[in-house]
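Task: sequence design from structure.
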């Protein structure tokens, strides 16, 4: 909650520092100062910043925020757009996990082979390539040349036709998944390599276990602890990556809502959307921490006890 509060303060005051005036944008060219002042009074823009901040938080919590441009409720806009962004992010994340975990393990265990070198090199290329270029390339191949999948836009009937909706999300999901997989393969490879160099893995192999059996039985659980952290980060990143990809493919999700709100300086929607995405990322991080503690019970030691243990060890060393 403290992190979310600090995020809300940063979001509110940073947005107030940006150039531009929402009232002037709403009224257009040729507006008089009197008209601007009247609209600012109606929007509460002439109130002290602390009062504006408190009013914003109240509107956010009670769900009474509305768009300055369309007059639509923030809740209605989010529910409507999230039906595109959330399935898109989950599809991308699932594809990325299914691809990157085995490739990362292969890249580490077969690092001296041509296959391991190829996977490692491909992941480096994937990290370097811009995500929008990947989207354009996929559209060129699978839509324009092969004609297998639609180039963009979400069906007007939405999820009433699940088949068409899924077809519209395949290429955007692949675009995000390729960028995520490239990063995740690097982390999985690094984590598995660290485990392969540990004493207990050498001991297991000296007792007759093959490398793959020793890794499967003793190493993967330990290797999973840092990998889970990066999976959580990438899941949050998939939501933010949708901002770019939704515009490449013309999808009307949360990313496109955020971009159009920034363009029109629709401050209530920008603030609420950024705070909502921040809250989602914080929740994901909390779930990741719980999962890490389940995988490695040593992480369950309370912070105060860890500190006492460190002090005791230093005293013993002295």
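Answer:
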């Amino acid at each position: 909650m403290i992190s979310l509060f600090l995020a809300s303060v940063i979001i509110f005051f940073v947005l107030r520092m940006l150039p531009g005036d929402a009232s002037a944008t709403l009224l257009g060219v040729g507006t008089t100062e009197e008209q601007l002042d009247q609209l600012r009074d109606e929007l509460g823009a002439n109130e002290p910043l602390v009062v504006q901040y408190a009013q914003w938080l109240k509107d956010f919590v009670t769900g009474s925020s509305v768009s300055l441009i369309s007059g639509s409720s923030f809740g209605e806009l989010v529910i409507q757009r999230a039906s595109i962004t959330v399935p898109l992010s989950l599809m991308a994340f699932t594809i990325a996990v299914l691809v990157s975990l085995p490739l990362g393990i292969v890249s580490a265990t077969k690092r001296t082979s041509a296959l391991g070198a190829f996977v490692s090199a491909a992941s480096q290329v994937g990290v370097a390539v811009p995500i929008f270029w990947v989207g354009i390339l996929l559209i060129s191949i699978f839509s324009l040349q092969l004609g297998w999948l639609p180039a963009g836009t979400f069906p007007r009937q939405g999820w009433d036709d699940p088949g068409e909706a899924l077809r519209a999300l395949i290429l955007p999901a692949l675009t995000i998944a390729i960028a995520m997989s490239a990063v995740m393969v690097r982390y999985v490879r690094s984590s598995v390599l660290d485990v392969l160099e540990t004493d207990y893995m050498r001991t297991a192999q000296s007792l007759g276990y093959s490398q793959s059996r020793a890794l499967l039985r003793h190493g993967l659980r330990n290797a999973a602890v840092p990998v889970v952290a990066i999976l959580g980060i990438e899941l949050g990143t998939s939501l933010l990556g949708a901002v770019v990809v939704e515009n490449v493919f013309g999808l009307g999700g949360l990313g496109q809502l955020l971009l159009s709100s920034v363009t029109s300086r629709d401050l209530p929607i920008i603030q609420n959307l950024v705070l909502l995405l921040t809250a989602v990322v914080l929740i994901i991080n909390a779930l990741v921490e719980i999962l890490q503690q389940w995988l490695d019970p040593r992480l369950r030691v309370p912070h105060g006890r860890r500190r006492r243990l460190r002090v005791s060890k230093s005293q013993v060393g002295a």
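Residues 211-249 form the longest helix (39 residues).
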